[in-house]
């Protein structure tokens, strides 16, 4: 869906159209001193759908404010098919959606910008969102963690105000109460460098987010009851990538070009290993810090961690597996997405490439190399 600019704002409408419209879940600085702010007008709680309007206003470019309205609701996996998310691991499952999406809409901002995020809780339980990795400087009460934030009651809203001061990098947000994270409600959060600050690698052809982690067929209430009874959680039922099971998500690349992948482990219990069949991973950033640009065949990503790699589409034109598998577990779970060359001559075939399983020393040595 695209945001609609009213006809009375003709000059701004022409400007917006010149950049091929503006996604309603992503805000953009359109011209010097002009900003289009998204406002929630109405919502259908059954689908968590929203209608957005862009309103132009003059701003100080040194203090850009991103203003978003979010609606959080609980829906079954079957109706989610209507918003392009299929059943998860083949099971009907209650999932927390944000603005009708799982994963939730991606937040994209720039160093030093201020964010105002209004969260409406349409669940029947208290709710909080935490901004994993965002430094809450002198405003810890915006971190979305119980003890510093009061939970948002059912049917109410809370407006988060935070600044991504002196930060860059790849992060994610997630619900922090009542094991809601096991029901989804998370999404990507990227902080781009200011244009005047050099980045130590050429601009990629595209910038992709991968949210990978373990998944349970039990709902979050049942999982919470297990923990409350003093027992450990059972072994996960599987892994998902961007809310989907095996081969459920495709990333399209052009042969010869280089792409950035921002990968986060959004799971509950397990570390993962990430790899792309036939391709090297050039590590360039870990949680907001540019790194020595070492090349890896695969990378371990532990719970809550995020990193960025550059991947060059330098292989024969076909489709390749993107693989995430569990680490340090006696039973190994794995899931796949697809790296699709735009001029692909063949689909993926054969088994996905294997990776490390229980080797702790291997993981420690890799961490020391970063």
UniProtKB/TrEMBL annotation:
Q: Which GO terms fall under molecular function for this chain's record?
A: copper ion binding; oxidoreductase activity
Per the UniProt record, which residue ranges are transmembrane? none
Domain of life according to the entry = Eukaryota
Plastocyanin-like domain segment(s): 88-194, 207-344
Alphabetical list of Pfam families matching this protein: Cu-oxidase, Cu-oxidase_3
| InterPro entries in UniProt | Cu-oxidase-like_N, Cu-oxidase_2nd, Cu-oxidase_fam, Cupredoxin, CuRO_2_AO-like
Which family does the entry's similarity section mention?
Belongs to the multicopper oxidase family.
Q: What is this protein called?
A: Uncharacterized protein
**What is the phylogenetic placement of the source species in the record?**
Eukaryota, Viridiplantae, Streptophyta, Embryophyta, Tracheophyta
